């Protein structure tokens, strides 16, 4: 890959393309983890090269549990992405986060059950022999969160900086009992895809934030109907336009940004004696860990 593309965008429900990209080319990538959700669409926005991927594939064909999120993130890494913005539809668990609002969460709570959560924990692709424990105390990049917040505010749409985002396995929506428990735990918004996207981005040393746009009040609200796909889609049209505008503003604000603040996230995370890590493991994960083994 000759050209380095520093900025990436993953579009979720309702965001399957970014019309603002110019001089577009489509790139099909293969990864050691299999194929990403779709072809990457690379184009220019505010003078920056940006790679866009439809998280569920164009046409929304892949269920949250079946997403090959490792392939998606690995593909962005191959392209050279340092800053990655996810766009996600979410339910609200608090009255003040109303449908149509944007939330830039600062915390993540994992309630998924069956996903591949790490590049470094997969016997089927031969990563035995390398143990890595990243820090996820701050699961979203605080620097990028601030940029996304200001970028979203610029649209004039209501936006909240901070919030606890719970990721459920899906694909079903929650029961009322579950929704009430999440509220009692202090959760603010609910979705199905930010785990493991956020932690894989951290493992890949990218800055990652999610622009979560609220489509519904999940199922806890006394006076609102329980969430349905129909209700989500009704709100999506407005939300998707605001989110795309906010992402474009964020790219403009990132134009002069230095290297990602997460660029050394693996520095203190590799516990295995480096001389014992099998060369094939290093080779398979070269775009992610190569720099830590180049002097081996
Ligand atoms: C269409 S409602 C449920 C669906 O929407 C969200 O998707 P994404 O995060 O990709 O925008 C949610 O996580 C579920 O996958
Ligand atoms: N209520 C909800 N629960 C989980 N994911 C969602 N995506 C949009 N609304 C949602």
TrEMBL record:
Q: Which InterPro entries match?
A: MTAP, Nucleoside_phosphorylase_d, Nucleoside_phosphorylase_sf
> Binding of phosphate: at which residues?
13, 55-56, 88-89, 193
The catalytic activity of this protein is classed by the Enzyme Commission as 2.4.2.28
Pathway assigned in UniProt: Amino-acid biosynthesis; L-methionine biosynthesis via salvage pathway; S-methyl-5-thio-alpha-D-ribose 1-phosphate from S-methyl-5'-thioadenosine (phosphorylase route): step 1/1
For this protein, the record's Gene3D superfamilies field holds: Nucleoside phosphorylase domain
User: What are the Nucleoside phosphorylase domain coordinates in residue numbering?
Assistant: 6-251
Which enzyme class, named as a word? transferase
Keyword Ion transport assigned to the entry: answer is: no
Q: Which one GO biological process term can you cite for this protein?
A: purine ribonucleoside salvage
What catalytic activity is recorded?
S-methyl-5'-thioadenosine + phosphate = 5-(methylsulfanyl)-alpha-D-ribose 1-phosphate + adenine
A GO molecular-function descriptor? S-methyl-5-thioadenosine phosphorylase activity
Q: Which residues form a coiled coil?
A: none
Write down a Pfam family by its short name.
PNP_UDP_1
Q: Which GO terms describe its cellular component?
A: cytosol
Q: Where is this site: Important for substrate specificity?
A: 174, 229
**Binding, substrate:** 192, 216-218
* Function recorded in the entry: Catalyzes the reversible phosphorylation of S-methyl-5'-thioadenosine (MTA) to adenine and 5-methylthioribose-1-phosphate. Involved in the breakdown of MTA, a major by-product of polyamine biosynthesis. Responsible for the first step in the methionine salvage pathway after MTA has been generated from S-adenosylmethionine. Has broad substrate specificity with 6-aminopurine nucleosides as preferred substrates.
Query: Which PANTHER family does the UniProt record give?
Result: S-METHYL-5'-THIOADENOSINE PHOSPHORYLASE (PTHR42679)
Family stated for the protein in its record: Belongs to the PNP/MTAP phosphorylase family. MTAP subfamily.
The record's section on NCBIfam families has: MTAP
State what protein this is by name.
S-methyl-5'-thioadenosine phosphorylase
Question: Which gene is the coding source of this polypeptide chain?
Answer: mtnP
